[in-house]
Specification:
Oligomer: single chain
Distance between the termini: 41 Å
Order of helices and strands: HHHH
Length: 79
């Protein structure tokens, strides 16, 4: 899997948030399947020590966005 995703995870989440989702939509939000597949690929590459610098940067973006989405969902539930 040598390709980069057509859009980044950050672009995907930004597009979702720009659509003015309801609280229910935010809580239920899941990134599209191809991002989940890409994340698992990057995690496998990282575990095997075969991850490139660009892939490591992409993995860091995934992890940062994951933390952001968790925080967003928690704060949305509390409102």
């Amino acid at each position: 899997m040598e390709f980069a995703p057509v859009s980044t995870i950050m672009e995907e989440v930004a597009n979702f948030l720009a659509s003015s989702p309801t609280a229910e939509q935010i809580i239920a939000y899941k990134v599209p399947e191809h991002f989940d597949e890409r994340l698992h690929y990057l995690l496998d590459q990282n575990s095997s020590g075969e991850i490139t610098r660009d892939e490591r940067s992409e993995l860091d973006d995934f992890m940062q966005m994951n933390r952001f989405l968790k925080l967003l969902k928690i704060k949305t539930r509390l409102q």
